[in-house]
From TrEMBL:
Designated name of the protein: Argininosuccinate lyase
Single GO term (MF): argininosuccinate lyase activity
InterPro entries: Arg_succ_lyase_C, Argininosuccinate_lyase, Fumarase/histidase_N, Fumarate_lyase_CS, Fumarate_lyase_fam, Fumarate_lyase_N, L-Aspartase-like
Top-level EC class: lyase
Domain Fumarate lyase N-terminal: start-end pairs: 8-302
The gene coding this protein: argH
Entry keyword Amino-acid biosynthesis: yes
Domain Argininosuccinate lyase C-terminal: 365-433
Catalyzed chemical reaction(s): 2-(N(omega)-L-arginino)succinate = fumarate + L-arginine
Length: 458
């Protein structure tokens, strides 16, 4: 067996089962390009500062370049004996350029190396997430714009409450996702920091130039404290927390889509491309993708809880527990990115059954507030108006009729303030149009929101 890169003080090889237990290489291969990038910056700095000769630095840089080509061609093999991505890559470098490869690890530890890889990976990932979020927000705005005048039942307690613009309902999700995007932007700031040069925990006696590696790696700034740089994972926790909030939002929207495409609602129809059938019931068209996104929110919450629990009792600085930061992060990143993509496709291709949706507010009492407001605006104290309308609703429910079916005569018996214009007031469309308070569901307000969103997305 190959000798370990850290094998000097050991007389015996590692137990085989334990070797596999200790290794992270099986699940962190995606860090390889970032590990090479970090090494290249490090060796460039080592050469420039004269810590190693410029000739040696050049040989190592060339070797790293060769490894990069091989990696892209899929010709790099990884093995458990070399434990993690760092030692796998370094071993390959030794095989490629010989003993000079041993100079790469001068003034560096795997502790700052792994932190650097993780920052580089997460920076790139957050940028991808922001791109996908942008796309989904755009799709929601397009859909909302198309449905500004679509009347839908608005709910509280899942009971018809007041009619709203379906565009307003969609824009609510746009607003939530915009705050998610803000949170990821903030997360990006905390990830845009360079841990390289912290070495094992305490910095180094070599005259390294951390500003230079910061510049070479494109980070905004170096970490100010070496212990902090190698021992915290708050940038990952922030990502997992942001991912959880995002999935919570997506999951709620999915829950609504599932309701809306049920036989009872029929408000929307999902495209075949985003639905599945049943192996036994020939008629079925199931909203599986919405259910899956709703379901996957669970593992994303779990990844957050996992890392929070892992971190809470760790003394400074590095502990091997920290190696367990990776799978959850990768899993959440993959999960939110595929969820965003699928969600986007599902919304972009679904059709809204505008007539069915509007009809849902024709035979209900969601216009009761209109009648109460009507009376209040004529000077009746709102509480009295509420009482009168409540009685009328009760009366209707006994007879199986609705407020718009009550004759003017009966209305005037209930209150002489009610006049013939009440029938217009009771219509859903009027009710929505008149709710023009800032941020309300009035068509003008929804249109203004859509316009502001379009600008924000430019
Ligand atoms: N594979 C390790 C990790 O992911 C790299 C750092 C190892 N450092 C150490 N001192 N054992 O955390």
């Amino acid at each position: 067996p190959e000798k370990k890169l850290w094998g000097g003080r050991f007389e015996q090889g590692l137990d085989k089962k334990t070797e596999a237990f200790s290794a992270s290489i099986t699940y962190e291969q995606r860090l390889a390009p970032f590990d090479l990038q970090g090494s290249l910056a490090h060796v460039t700095m080592l050469g420039e500062t004269g810590i190693i000769s410029s000739d040696e630095a050049q040989q190592i840089a060339d070797g790293l370049g060769l490894l990069k080509d091989k990696l892209e061609a899929g010709e790099i093999d990884f093995n458990i004996e070399n434990e993690d991505i760092h030692m796998n890559m370094e071993t390959h470098l030794h095989k490629t350029i010989g003993p000079v490869a041993g100079k790469l690890h001068t003034a560096r530890s795997r502790n700052d190396q792994v932190a650097t890889d993780m920052h580089l990976y997460l920076k790139a990932t957050i940028r991808d997430v922001l791109g996908l979020l942008h796309q989904l927000r755009q799709t929601l705005v397009d859909l909302a714009e198309d449905n500004i005048e679509t009347i839908a039942p608005g709910y509280t307690h899942l009971q018809h409450a007041q009619p709203i613009s379906f565009g307003q309902h969609l824009m609510a999700y746009y607003q939530m996702l915009s705050r998610d995007a803000d949170r990821f932007e903030f997360n990006l700031k905390h990830t845009d920091m360079n841990p390289l040069g912290a070495a094992a925990l305490a910095g180094t006696t070599f005259p390294i130039d951390r500003e230079r590696t910061t510049e070479l790696l494109g980070f905004a700034a170096p970490y100010a404290n070496s212990l902090d740089a190698v021992s915290d994972r708050d940038f990952i926790l922030e990502f997992l927390s942001n991912s959880s909030l995002l999935m919570m939002h997506l999951s709620r929207l999915c829950e609504e889509l599932i309701l809306w495409c049920s036989h009872e609602f029929q408000f929307v129809s999902l495209s075949d491309a985003y639905s599945t059938g049943s192996s036994i019931m020939p008629q079925k068209k199931n909203p599986d993708m919405a259910e899956l996104i709703r379901g996957k929110s669970g593992r994303v919450y779990g990844n957050l809880m996992g890392l929070l629990s892992l971190m809470k009792g760790l003394p400074l600085a590095y502990n091997k527990d920290l190696q367990e930061d990776k799978e959850g992060m990768f899993d959440s990143a993959d999960t939110i990115m595929t969820s965003l993509e699928v969600m986007n496709g599902m919304l972009a291709t679904m059709s809204v059954n505008k007539d069915i949706m509007a009809r849902a507010t024709e035979k209900d009492f969601s216009n009761a507030t209109e009648l109460a407001d009507y009376l209040a605006s004529k000077g009746l104290p709102f509480r009295q108006a509420h009482e009168i309308v409540g009685k009328l609703v009760l009366d209707c429910t006994k007879k199986g009729t609705y407020l718009q079916d009550i004759s003017l005569e009966d209305y005037q018996t209930a209150s002489p303030l009610i006049e013939a214009d009440i029938y217009e007031v009771l219509q859903s469309k009027t009710a929505v149009a008149r709710r023009n308070s800032l941020g309300g569901t009035g068509f003008e307000q929804v249109r203004a929101q859509v316009e502001a969103a379009k600008k924000a997305l430019l």
